């Protein structure tokens, strides 16, 4: 990355180059689209274990994402410990009960009805892994001096997208969960005040009787999500 004393530019030849024909590019893009269309947000998990090495590889993939000034302002806390998962579930459900009891406006609650969610979050203990994503609002050199991170929400959002794609590529399902507020996660996971939790990702294998909301299969067409000039 960089050190306090050495902030210099040093160019190296592009180390990895994909030399594809136009036809190969088209097949690769279509193949990735087909694979990602099979990604689903799943709330019903099996307790089948997932090896730590799989999660490590997926987090390493997330760590390759581009970021503002290459500061890589993220931290991924991966949790398999049952007691810690239970603590997170208990505190998350407490926040969710307040949310559904009136903390959220009527419009928000109405928007969630087709998704079928409520304050009950069993996936937080059944899924073999929880990954809590933290955004680092500032960093520190070894002597404790702070430095500013740039484009933190954008950078962490891109890295989280990489992580979700990697989990899917590894044959796993994932569900993003954002209890509000989430400050309890700093205390539960020993993360510093410089870091803001952005979401909890449950990762694992789907239960044999897993379902998804029908509405989740409805995606906006290309002409609604893009413009070409």
UniProtKB/TrEMBL annotation:
Organism superkingdom: Bacteria
Q: Please provide an example of a Pfam family that matches this protein in its UniProt record.
A: Nitroreductase
Q: Which residues form the Nitroreductase domain?
A: 37-205
Q: Keywords in alphabetical order, please.
A: Flavoprotein, FMN, Oxidoreductase
- Would you tell me the protein name for this molecule? Nitroreductase family protein
Annotated source species: Sedimentitalea xiamensis
């Amino acid at each position: 990355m960089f050190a306090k004393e050495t902030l210099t530019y040093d160019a190296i030849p592009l180390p990895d180059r994909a030399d594809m024909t136009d036809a190969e590019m088209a097949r690769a893009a279509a193949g990735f689209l087909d694979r990602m269309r099979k990604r689903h947000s799943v709330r019903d998990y099996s307790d089948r274990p997932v090896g730590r090495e799989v999660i490590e590889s997926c987090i390493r993939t997330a760590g390759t994402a581009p970021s503002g000034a290459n500061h890589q302002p993220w931290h991924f806390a991966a949790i398999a410990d049952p007691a810690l998962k239970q603590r997170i579930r208990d505190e998350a459900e407490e926040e969710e009960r307040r949310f559904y009891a009136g903390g959220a406006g009527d419009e928000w609650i109405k928007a969630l009805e087709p998704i079928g969610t409520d304050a009950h979050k069993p996936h937080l203990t059944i899924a073999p892994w929880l990954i809590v994503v933290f955004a680092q609002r500032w960093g520190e050199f070894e002597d404790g001096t702070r430095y500013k991170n740039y484009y933190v929400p954008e950078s962490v959002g891109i890295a989280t997208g990489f992580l979700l794609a990697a989990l899917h590529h590894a044959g796993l399902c994932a569900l993003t969960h954002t209890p509000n507020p989430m400050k309890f996660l700093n205390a539960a996971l020993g993360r510093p005040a410089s870091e803001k939790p952005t979401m909890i990702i449950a990762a694992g294998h789907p239960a044999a009787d897993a379902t998804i909301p029908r509405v989740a299969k409805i995606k906006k067409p290309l002409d609604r999500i893009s413009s070409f000039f």
